[in-house]
Amino acid sequence: xxxxxxxxxxxxxxxxxxxxxxxxxxxxxxxxxxxxxxxxxxxxxxxxxxxxxxxxxxxxxxxxxxxxxxxxxxxxxxxxxxxxxxxxxxxxxxxxxxxxxxxxxxxxxxxxx
Amino acid sequence: xxxxxxxxxxxxxxxxxxxxxxxxxxxxxxxxxxxxxxxxxxxxxxxxxxxxxxxxxxxxxxxxxxxxxxxxxxxxxxxxxxxxxxxxxxxxxxxxxxxxxxxxxxxxxxx
Lengths: 113, 111
Known about the structure:
The complex is a heterodimer. Chain A is mostly beta strands. The model of chain A has no long low-confidence stretch (mean pLDDT 94).
């Protein structure tokens, strides 16, 4: 059955290193979301795209985070340089058109030491 | 911006009904959702309700919406151990498909 995939599932890295997380949305979905989940802040929307164009990235720290969709089958979230406070689970979700029906990937658990 | 609040924990016995509550602030919210998150997994859409409805039933799930009080609830009938998870309420804000999620309610089902 169709599902959102994310790689890697787990990433441990040292402070200052670059981290790239990848997401493959469900084929045919035209909206892609990046969320971050922590115990303290809960679920935060970082950025979202429709038809590969960024619509809102106001939730993302601009100085170190960047999100792109090089093509319709790949979304990336990059952190450079990473910091310990970036440790969290990062989820990608995809959906169709308008509305809040979103399909989540399994997440990437990032630990920055 | 939109604020969505939920209580943090709920504990019920297997076979009982669970009721998870949510309040929101934006009266123009058009669609309201319930998502479920099991340990180590992403969120999964359970059900949703349009703002022009006050109730929706889907098998063991019943969603109630009180627009006047901006209150949404999810009732799970005959709660099972497999229902143990975190449940998130979410509302559409500002049109389009940007969701604002609540803090999540951890449901624990005891034998």
